[in-house]
Amino acid sequence: MSIAGHFLAGSSSRRVAASLQCEDGQVRVLGEDGAVLAAALCGAVEISSRLGNTPRFVRFADGTAFETADNDAVDRLLPAHGAGLLHHLESRLRYVLIGVLVTVVFVWASVQWGVPMAARTIAAMLPASVHVHADRLVLELIDRQMMTPSALDPAEQQRLQALFAPFAAAVDDERPIRVLFRLAGEDIGANALALPGGTIVFTDQLVALARNDDELLGVLAHEIGHVAHRHAMRRSIQASMMGVLAAIVVGDISAVSSAVTALPLILTELGYSRAFEREADSYAVDMMRRHGIDPRHLANILQRLDPSQGGGGSYLSTHPPTPERVRAIHERAAQ
């Protein structure tokens, strides 16, 4: 009895049609012309475990191998090697269900705790130069595709810079805070962005929306919270880790970009973003109180930014519900 398959010489990836025989305690691989391509005692070869319908390999000590898709024939011809533990497990429903359960628990725990914790640790360990480099790249993208130079009067920009200076100087961090003004398109509107290296971008529309300076200071404190907690870099790391995790689970990195796989990733990132916003709100309340400013000014401008109230477009699209944030700000301010 022989098994049809292919011979791999080991020195190249070329596959040669061949057959495998096992007689008198010896395994031999024969070419189509009958020539012996490899031979060894049955106990000296290594046979890959059986897993579904994946090809099996019979490997020889000299690095050559025989590949075949006839798993049943391999089990019959070389019974001493057996089908392997993996085939034994996958053939029983109980073990399959246990495997599915373990996978679900692993993914859930990774998303819930593992990925955020790892991202926080990695972001904290990165040198300031990495954050500054990322800051520059993001700003270049913003200026090239999303925003144009500010139309605010230079005197007003100078006044706001002086207003923001005490808040920016109060941050004890190796990434100094700097504020820039830009005119955004309609799809961005009233907005503020905290970049990885300490740059904070205010749009002209946000400045126009504010009814007083304290509201702008509230938004600034919130964005400084993002910088202090390294949210931009953490979110980037989390997104990358979620992609790797998805690839591990589905077994194909190309599936990360598919609609089925991408949707859970987007929803998960939405959750992470909301957690970051709550953290930044808390930071802002504490900073405003230290500077003698009522934190309710932040709550007031957030309410006007709420799209459901005809406000600032996409600014709150990934944020927790505005009433929830306003309530949390009032409660922390009252403590």
Automatic annotation (TrEMBL):
Highest taxon above the source species: Bacteria
Organism of origin: Pseudothauera lacus
GO terms of molecular function: metal ion binding; metalloendopeptidase activity
Ranges annotated as spanning the membrane: 95-115, 243-267
Gene Ontology CC entries for this record: membrane
Keywords in alphabetical order: Hydrolase, Membrane, Metal-binding, Metalloprotease, Protease, Transmembrane, Transmembrane helix, Zinc
InterPro entries: DUF7092, Mito/Outer_Membr_Metalloprot, Peptidase_M48
Signal sequence range: none
Cofactor(s) needed: Zn(2+)
Source species taxonomy: Bacteria, Pseudomonadati, Pseudomonadota, Betaproteobacteria, Rhodocyclales
Domain Peptidase M48: 155-332
Start and end residues of each DUF7092 domain: 3-81
Protein name: Peptidase M48 Ste24p
Similarity section: Belongs to the peptidase M48 family.
GO biological process: proteolysis involved in protein catabolic process
Annotated cofactor note: Binds 1 zinc ion per subunit.
